[in-house]
């Protein structure tokens, strides 16, 4: 059953058309999300709505605070399961290791390589496995270095050889992740074929997850009409490069790219197929409202938490966007500026428990964000539903909408929890409130079946009784010698 009638559809279409006209009208009209506060969300209609803060900035860490001198153009962060924090201080060619209280544990700036002291050169990416195997994208040295828990060299991955690579291929790794089978996935500068996959032994095997090529229709037309010599001088159509990646406990790679025309957030399986669910009101792409002169968000980092929650960092406006597994926008925080909680050039994000760390490359600082009551409640609502605890999900979502009635997808969350509990009638109401057509149709169908099922015994009993009465009546008529009943077929 459809939730919206034709009149409602025409109304929505008219609103969208009006919004489109206002967005691109002369005068470069300011959009609310562009100049508004750092805590907001988007309604079903695409309007910017006020939202409570999900995170508050509580601390600022510098190299001087840690007693190691200023950080110089740090590029990456990684947090292990035991909440040890690895900070890649790229400009100083070192790695800082902190505990969960942000106290310095170690400084890694060299290692033994066949009896010689070796070090890093402008490293750009870092990853640590569950058994504390340390992988460093040592960009300046064009290699990936693996150190064990005792910081002893395990292997160096460099100069990959394959028929898939050109003879003059220049290996410049900038990001690295590793799955539980010890397969290494590397993002390398200048590679448009996806991520480079290496075996546990360090041998290059294949590319995975290449972005689709976007073809400008006008340029394609010109190429079609041009001569071979003219085409050779034109810009070639190439896929967009990825900008970052992360991997979850199940081995799925979450990645961001700079594609303004396609999907700039992906969830890749082992075959490189994008399996990200996009069931939110809008595509998960950061800001959906912005000034045309500024353009869309430029996502440069992604962090995957538990329960399929993921966050992305927008370098253009310094904001962090967090989505649930269905790609509904949960909350937004951060921004560019000089006060606590704002950044100059944010470059990486990581979670320590429910806290969020944001690394500022320009200032050499780490901002610590802690969840508010609203953020904790919403996080727990999403987690409860993910693990199948419908009662807890229902309670947490109810608390969430009491704090933020504008969060429309929370009504859908309540509807889904009620749906799992078998309360289809109530689920219909909440799906309608959240404009969830799919959920509404499913709840309506199940509600109708439940009603029919509840009345089925009464209906069948009535039918049987009527049949018995008819049979008895016919026998009585026949016994009395009454007129035979003729059935016309």
TrEMBL record:
<dbReference type="Pfam" id="PF01436">
    <property type="entry name" value="NHL"/>
</dbReference>
<keyword id="KW-0677">Repeat</keyword>
<feature type="transmembrane region" description="Helical">
    <location>
        <begin position="455"/>
        <end position="473"/>
    </location>
</feature>
<dbReference type="InterPro" id="IPR001258">
    <property type="entry name" value="NHL_repeat"/>
</dbReference>
<keyword id="KW-0732">Signal</keyword>
<keyword id="KW-0812">Transmembrane</keyword>
<feature type="signal peptide">
    <location>
        <begin position="1"/>
        <end position="33"/>
    </location>
</feature>
<dbReference type="InterPro" id="IPR011990">
    <property type="entry name" value="TPR-like_helical_dom_sf"/>
</dbReference>
<dbReference type="InterPro" id="IPR011042">
    <property type="entry name" value="6-blade_b-propeller_TolB-like"/>
</dbReference>
<keyword id="KW-0472">Membrane</keyword>
<feature type="repeat" description="NHL">
    <location>
        <begin position="69"/>
        <end position="101"/>
    </location>
</feature>
<keyword id="KW-1133">Transmembrane helix</keyword>
<dbReference type="InterPro" id="IPR050952">
    <property type="entry name" value="TRIM-NHL_E3_ligases"/>
</dbReference>
<feature type="repeat" description="NHL">
    <location>
        <begin position="110"/>
        <end position="150"/>
    </location>
</feature>
<dbReference type="InterPro" id="IPR019734">
    <property type="entry name" value="TPR_rpt"/>
</dbReference>
<dbReference type="GO" id="GO:0008270">
    <property type="term" value="F:zinc ion binding"/>
</dbReference>
<feature type="repeat" description="TPR">
    <location>
        <begin position="408"/>
        <end position="441"/>
    </location>
</feature>
<keyword id="KW-0802">TPR repeat</keyword>
<protein>
    <recommendedName>
        <fullName>Gluconolactonase</fullName>
    </recommendedName>
</protein>
């Amino acid at each position: 059953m459809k939730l919206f009638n034709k009149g409602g559809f025409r109304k929505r279409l008219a609103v969208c058309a009006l919004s489109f006209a206002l967005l691109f009208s002369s005068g470069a009209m300011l959009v609310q999300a562009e100049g508004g506060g750092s805590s907001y969300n988007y309604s079903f209609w695409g309007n910017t709505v006020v939202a409570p803060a999900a995170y508050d900035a509580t601390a600022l860490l510098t190299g001087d605070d840690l007693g190691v001198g200023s950080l110089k153009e740090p590029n990456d962060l990684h947090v292990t399961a035991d909440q040890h924090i690895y900070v890649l201080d790229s400009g100083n060619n070192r790695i800082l290791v902190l505990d969960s209280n942000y106290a310095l544990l170690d400084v890694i700036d060299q290692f033994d390589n066949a009896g010689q002291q070796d070090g890093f050169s402008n490293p750009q990416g870092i990853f640590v496995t569950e058994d504390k195997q340390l992988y460093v994208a040592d960009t300046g040295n064009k290699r990936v270095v693996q150190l064990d828990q005792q910081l002893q060299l395990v292997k160096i991955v460099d100069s990959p050889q394959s028929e898939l690579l050109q003879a003059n291929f220049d290996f410049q790794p900038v990001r690295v992740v590793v799955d539980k089978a010890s397969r290494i996935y590397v993002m390398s500068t200048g590679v448009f074929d996806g991520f480079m996959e290496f075996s546990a032994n360090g041998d290059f095997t294949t590319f995975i997850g290449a972005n689709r090529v976007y073809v400008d229709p006008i340029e394609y037309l010109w190429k079609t009409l041009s001569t071979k010599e003219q085409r050779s001088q034109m810009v070639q159509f190439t896929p967009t490069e990825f900008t970052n990646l992360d991997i979850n406990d199940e081995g799925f790679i979450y990645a961001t790219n700079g594609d303004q025309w396609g999907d700039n957030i992906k969830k890749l399986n082992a075959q490189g197929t994008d399996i990200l669910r996009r069931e939110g009101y809008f595509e998960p792409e950061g800001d959906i409202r912005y000034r045309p002169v500024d353009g869309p968000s430029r996502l440069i980092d992604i962090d995957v938490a538990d329960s399929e929650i993921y966050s992305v960092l927008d370098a253009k406006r310094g904001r962090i966007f967090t989505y649930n597994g269905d790609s509904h926008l949960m909350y937004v925080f951060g921004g560019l500026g000089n006060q606590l909680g704002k950044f100059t050039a944010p470059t990486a994000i990581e979670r320590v428990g429910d806290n969020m760390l944001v690394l500022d490359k320009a200032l050499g600082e780490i901002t610590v964000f802690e969840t508010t009551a609203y953020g904790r409640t919403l996080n727990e609502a999403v987690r409860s539903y993910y693990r199948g605890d419908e009662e807890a999900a229902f309670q947490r979502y109810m608390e969430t909408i009491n704090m933020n009635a504008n969060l429309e997808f929370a009504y859908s969350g309540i509807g889904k929890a009620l749906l799992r509990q078998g309360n289809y009638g109530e689920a219909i109401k909440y799906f309608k409130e959240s404009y969830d057509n799919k959920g509404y149709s499913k709840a309506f169908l199940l509600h109708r079946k439940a009603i029919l099922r509840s009345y089925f015994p009464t209906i069948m009993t009535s039918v049987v009784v009527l049949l018995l009465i008819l049979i008895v009546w016919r026998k009585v008529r026949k016994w009395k010698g009454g007129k035979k009943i003729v059935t016309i077929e």
